[in-house]
Amino acid sequence: MNVAQPLIHIHDFHMHFAAKKVIDGLSFDVERGETFGFLGSNGSGKTTTIRALLGIYRPTAGTLEINGKVFSDDFGSRLGYLPEERGLYKKESVMDVMTYFGRLKGLSKQEAQKFSRQYLDRVDLADKADLRLDKLSGGEQQKIQLGVTIMNEPELLILDEPTKGFDPVNRRLLLDIIEERKDAGATVMMVTHQMEEVERLCERIILLKDGRAEAYGTIDEVQNQFGGRTIKLKYSGTINESPNYKITLQETNYAELSLAESADESQVLRELIGSGLAVSGFVAAKRSLDDIFIQIYGDPSAAHKPNSTGPVT
Ligand SMILES: Nc1ncnc2c1ncn2[C@@H]1O[C@H](COP(=O)(O)OP(=O)(O)OP(=O)(O)O)[C@@H](O)[C@H]1O
């Protein structure tokens, strides 16, 4: 294994469906051991990219590799893939289905049953082990599918909207389970539309737009690229110009400052107070990923919204 080599490498990937161009020269890497957020609006090509990476679709052009090679059965047992379309054998019992998939993934029957019992207990489904899968709710079936995906502790997890349709309590439980795999060293590539999940789990992200990368990098890098850190200030007096910030909004007793990349928040606060400004409120914040997402993809309700700057305490 070449440790320096990314686990997933995609270069100049193009995908056309007849005359429709869905992916247009996409390039990105997923490094070993990281959790990577694969983001983009509906229909932007995330599932298509995953399918091409896993050989389900033949790419129109480009390089798509896992561990330095086009995906093949060699890597199959090291991959856990949770597809967007869910589906297990619904007429079998939960335990039988989990054991069957465990055997397919190379576990012994005993190992598969042991994992299944522990997992079902963890996700609060221990009492449903002997029920037919189609007697479970949609969310419960999804929990089983995630269990099947992680049961052989794969080195790479590709999860297409793993928490879609879950209530907040179960969403947190599923994120905990994914985070445990990450802490155990798995590389995770995850599609989600939930930015708080991205902020909690992901080191790096890509945002797809029109089949290209609109933003790519660490969350900090993307936040800096789209406006970086801001300070909301309640004050009286005069705010001096400074190389450490730019004044982006100024009203009588309220202002917003955009920080220079090298400046730090407490240094700016000291500088403002040192210049004689009376500061009665100071909130430092990064631009949220939600805001950045809306900037990139457009806010359909923007035309009807008042221009709000948000509260300062
Ligand atoms: N087999 C196919 N034949 C024709 N068009 C397809 C096919 N698969 C996907 N597409 C089209 O490619 C585009 C991207 O679809 P894809 O499922 O990759 O989007 P996505 O980013 O995963 O969206 P979502 O967030 O809604 O799941 C869509 O316009 C879709 O209709």
UniProtKB/TrEMBL annotation:
Name the UniProt key words of this record, in alphabetical order: Antibiotic resistance, ATP-binding, Nucleotide-binding, Transport
In its keyword annotation, does this UniProt entry include Nucleotide-binding? yes
Q: Which residues form the ABC transporter domain?
A: 8-235
GO CC, sorted alphabetically, is:
plasma membrane
Q: Name one GO biological process term.
A: response to antibiotic
Bilayer topology? Peripheral membrane protein
Q: Which InterPro entries match?
A: AAA+_ATPase, ABC_transporter-like_ATP-bd, ABC_transporter-like_CS, ABC_transporter_ATP-binding, DrrA1/2-like_C, P-loop_NTPase
Q: Does the keyword Hydrolase apply?
A: no
Where does it live in the cell?
Cell membrane
Family, per entry: Belongs to the ABC transporter superfamily.
What's this protein's name?
ABC transporter ATP-binding protein
Q: Report the source organism.
A: Arthrobacter glacialis
